[in-house]
Amino acid sequence: MSNHQTPVPLKPDDVSAHLTCAICMNVPAEPSLTPCQHLFCKECLSMHRQTAGPFCPSCRTHNANVTALQSGSLIYRVWSEINVKCGNHDRGCPWTGSIVDAITHMHSCALVDRSKKLLEEIAALKQQLESLRSGRESLRQQLDAAKQELATSRTNESNLSKTNKNLELKLEASKASAKAQLAAVYHDNDVLPKLFVGNYGYNRHSVVKLSQLISRYLENKPNNIDSNRIFNCVSQCYKDLERNYNDNPEFYYVDMRMLLATCDASTWFSNQQRSRISQWMSEQNWSG
After folding, report:
1. N or C: which terminus of the chain has fewer CB atoms within 10 Å of its end residue's CB?
2. In this predicted model, what pLDDT tens digit does every residue of 8-28 receive, in sequence order?
3. Alpha-carbon span 255 to 115, nearest angstrom
């Protein structure tokens, strides 16, 4: 088992060497027992048998089969009394408990860490969006003010010619500035890596890239991107989540949560499509 997932005994000195895996020197969270009564981590023993054959790493006895510890056996009862702390304890996880419950906790703990990070990224994206909206509103106000000033000046006939010329130049300059700033926000391909190259092959192995594409142009979808085809990609990815394939990516659950939250915040989709996205989020208890 990888180091960040290995449970740590609360009292290492009290753990018998017979309950320690001779390969990784840790207490097995998922123990396997050889016919010659030696205990190893399930993962360690499997890797050893793949490279060295069906021989016990401790005594070299030929073992055709290995088994998990049988609940109720003496060695199982002794092993289950070992109390451990989470492999993430050095990063702040306070959990302690029986080694029997360690695997269930550590899987949950790893997902919580990943989910928290992704939710923080979504919050940061929303904050950036609010900043862009504020900047765009300021530009609109400047344009409205310029138009109002131009309209007012037209009532002054004595200075009509000179005033019109100056205000028209000012208005054009404001429009050019606004267009340049909006283009820099949404379409600066010299700074941002290109995420869309003309195809719609997004699937469960490219969910993060699809989220990045939609979040980059959250309220300003490029004309060359077909939102209906993008929605079909999102729908297929959600179906793969429901089918729970064994080869789904490791963090597929939290990556799909990030994708649907991004879709829900965007203006890419029709009302019917947005209703489907909200339904999917509700099915997974992701709403709110």
Report:
1. C
2. 888 888 888 888 998 999 999
3. 8
